[in-house]
Each structure stands twice: as structure tokens, then as C-alpha cells.
Amino acid sequence: MVFKKMLSAFGVGGPSVDTVLTNPNTRPGLTLDGQVNLVGGDAEAAIEQVVIGLVTRVEVEGHDAEYSGTLEFHRMAVSGALQLAPKQQLSIPFQLPVPWETPITDVYGQRLHGMTMGLRTELAIARAVDKSDLDQVAVHPLPVHERILEAFQRLGFRFKHADLERGHIRGVQQTLPFYQEIEFFAAPQYASTIREVELTFVTSQRGVEVILECDKRGGFLSSGHDAFGRYQVSHTDVDRVDWAQVVDGWLRETTSRYGSLRSQYGPSHGHGHGRGGMGMGGMVAGAALGVAGGMIAGEMIEDAFEGDFGGDFGGDE
């Protein structure tokens, strides 16, 4: 749908802007392509800059409360200064690189409940900036993300919610000022030890750092607590391993070795929510695990979970 949006900052009769995405669907590490369409107003306008930026909703923990706010996390100028004549139509094409750490918003065509993402267009004229044009964007998982999410599903975990937390995970190389938490209700076979699991992907060109936070149930003589694990996978591991087996191993290691995880990869780290002091899981490489059976091809996954997986992950937004 193409429609004009009047820029209120410039008054009635001012220029209008409309950004059209070639395809609103993308993945981390790819691009968003499109064009910014400008239409001159009643008078000539000296435009200082046209900027596009990715915006999303982020949860922020304050001293006494938690609140959410809209945050622009990646921006790019698509044009410098230009003169726009009355009623002149001008189209500016762009290719916006999508950061590797961009959070996932959609899985198998279903919006993850709790996630929002948009491309915002700013037009600056004489120090007035209008940010009225916002286009929805869908960020789909990379193959390794898909395999891990599908493994949780195969193990019986049910998707609960996803959100973005402001801050950095200590010991993890992050480029964005937030991280995504994908929350699951525990599968029946883990229910005696785990209530919920939070999954975080920190993605780079080389691979994905997977951070697990397990909400452990209390025992006869102990109270419940959170257990943490960190695991590194490569993009090339995608078809080398049985991911359900790998994720099951991560969960069992994370929960059984709570408080004593000391690997050869360095000291324990955590983040602002208290993920500190719990330690790191071992590095997992597909080659080291060998080629395991049980992998399902991507198109078969989509068929198998068309109603089940998608509906479970889908939100009502």
C-alpha cells in the first residue's frame, strides 16, 4: 500500500515523504532495499538530510520499575542536502545493511509475540525534523537460529514470550545496546527441574553465541534459582548435528552443574539481570560432535510445523 504522509513539522503545504520497501522481510546480516519518495510542497524546500533507521521496542529496568521505550538502533543517511521544487517528485533508492545482532521478529511467517520492528524515515528541513513515516519490518531467523528454535519445539518446549532487554551481557561481544530474550515454558521431561528457559542469540558473521537462563525449581533442601550456560556455534554447523540432542545436552549441563561451571575458556560472566557468577558452558562445535542423524530439511520443518510451530510462536499483534 502506497500513501502520502504529510510532515506536520513543516506545516500544511509542506513536502511529503513515503518510504516503500522492496521486501519488508529480511534476516540478520542481509539488507533492506527500498526507496524514499519525496513530493515537493507548495514552495521550494531546502532539505538538509534524509535518514532511515531501524527502531524497536526495548524493555528498560530502572531503580524501582521496568518500562518499555522505542529505540532506534541502526541508522543511515540516504541523501545529503538537496533542493526540492514545488510539487517535484523525487525517488531515492537505498540498501540498508541489517546488523548481525538484529533481533528475530518472525518465525515461519508468524510474528513472535512481544516483538516489534520498523523502518523510520526522517526528513530534516531548517533544523526541523519529522519522523512520521514508519514501515513495519519482519526479521526472520538465520538457518542456525531456525535449527535451535526447532530443537526446543521438538523437545516439547512451548513458546511464551519474546522481548528486548536494554544492556549488555558481560563477557559477550555485543554491538547493539540490547539483547533479545526468547522465553519458553519447560517441556514435560524437564518440568521436575526447570520452570522456564530464556534463550538469547548474540549473532556475528562467524557464528552465534547462545546464552541459556534456566529457572530451576527448588529441591527438598534448596530454593529455586537461575542457572546459566553459554555455548558457541558456527553458521557452518547447521546441517552437521542433531540439534535436539545438542540443545538437550546444553540444558542438562546448564542445570546439573549450576554454580560449578568452570571451563577452559575463561572465568564466568553474566549481565545486569544477575547472570553473573554462574559460569560458562563449554564451546560446542558441530565437527566435534560428529555427523548425527535426525536432521530435518528446512522445507520439511516448515511443512511439519505449519500449524503447530507457527501457531505456537505467533502473537496476536
Q: What percent of residues are in strands?
A: 35-45%
Inertia-based shape: elongated
Mean pLDDT: 78
Helix/strand structural class: mainly beta
Order of helices and strands: EEEEEEEEEEEEEHEEEEEHHHH
Helix content: 10-25%
Profile the largest sheet: 5 strands, antiparallel
Which residues form runs of ≥5 with pLDDT under 50? 1-9, 258-312
Number of DSSP helices?
A: 5
Which value, in Å, is the CA radius of gyration? 23 Å
**Total beta-strand segments:** 18
Distance between the termini: 19 Å
Describe the structure concisely.
This protein is mainly beta.
Explain this structure to me?
The chain is built from 5 helices and 18 strands. The protein has helices at residues 143-154, 243-256, 286-289, 298-304, 308-313; strands at 5-6, 16-21, 25-26, 31-39, 45-61, 66-79, 82-84, 89-97, 106-107, 110-111, 117-125, 128-136, 138-139, 158-166, 178-185, 194-203, 207-216, 225-234. The strands form 5 sheets. Strands 5, 6, 7, 11 and 12 form a 5-stranded antiparallel sheet that branches. The chain has a 5-stranded antiparallel sheet with strand order 14-15-16-17-18, covered by helices on one side. Strands 1-2-4-8 form a 4-stranded antiparallel sheet, with no helix packed on it. Strand 15 (178-185) and strand 16 form a beta hairpin. Helix 1 (143-154) packs across helix 2 (243-256). The longest helix has 14 residues, at 243-256. The model is unreliable at 1-9 and 258-312 (pLDDT under 50).
